[in-house]
Amino acid sequence: MSSRCGTDSSFERHLINQLGGWTNELALPLLPPREVSKEGEVLRREFRAHAPYAVMVGKLVRAVSGIRAALVLADIGYVAECGALLRMVSDFCTEITAVGEALNSGGEPPAPVRKFVDQYFSPKPRTPEEFAEMERTRYVSREDLMKAESRLAEQSGIDAEGLRLLHRFLNMSFDAYVHGAYETTMELYDPRVGTFMMDGHVSISTRQAFVEAICGKLHEVVVAVETTAAIGGNAGVFQAAGDAKRALDARSAEPRGGSPIG
């Protein structure tokens, strides 16, 4: 599901400004973080509970920060960097869905989800030797985590395989920006002056296309907020996110000009 904001993105921009407050409210049960220190040096800060809900909140923080930053970049013309951020945001939302679906289904979470949660809390290597040891660790794949979306689609009577293919196609489109694919470089070439636009894309329509892509990703982020609120038992944020999701659905059904890139 995507929201097509057209030339009027005021609703979506207002909604993006609300995401931070909702996320901070969902994080409250895990705060303040405890400090892990050694010999007087603070090594890292950690949530007070190493629980699946903490993973969802941690990923939601990054998703909300990411989509806000993507909007700033689109507005000033850094469209390739905006695309890279949107790819990251999509992954964070997929991860939230996977953990939330596992917790909501009851019983023992699937092995990939249990492993993903454990790996989330593994401390970052602090020496080359620790890094070499961690390099042999196999991480949970995005394909394994995306199975949660397929199960939810089947329960809702949606074509799960079609949804999976569409999700992978959209990810592939944004992967190009993450990896600096050939076409993402040439998108920054300005034939009028014969140089590359490395201080922001000059085309207003190109900038707008990326704003529309952000509107599409916003639906994923709002669903991630709603899912996290449901697992955390926060009725207020759950209701607010649900209302926002329904408003986005209604806007997506309205005829609008232009077409989003993702």
In DSSP terms, counting alpha (H) and pi (I) runs of 4 or more, how many helices?
Answer: 10
User: Whole-number average pLDDT?
Assistant: 88
Rounded Rg: 20 Å
Read across the widest sheet, the strand sequence of neighbours is 1-2
Structural class: mainly alpha
Order of helices and strands: HEEHHHHHHHEEHH
**Count of distinct structural domains:** 1
Task: List low-pLDDT spans.
Answer: 256-262
What portion of the residues fall into strands of 2 or more residues? Answer: 5-15%
Helix content: 55-70%
> Largest sheet, if any?
2 strands, antiparallel
Distance between the termini: 11 Å
Shape descriptor reads globular
Assembly state (oligomeric): single chain
- Give the beta-strand count: 4
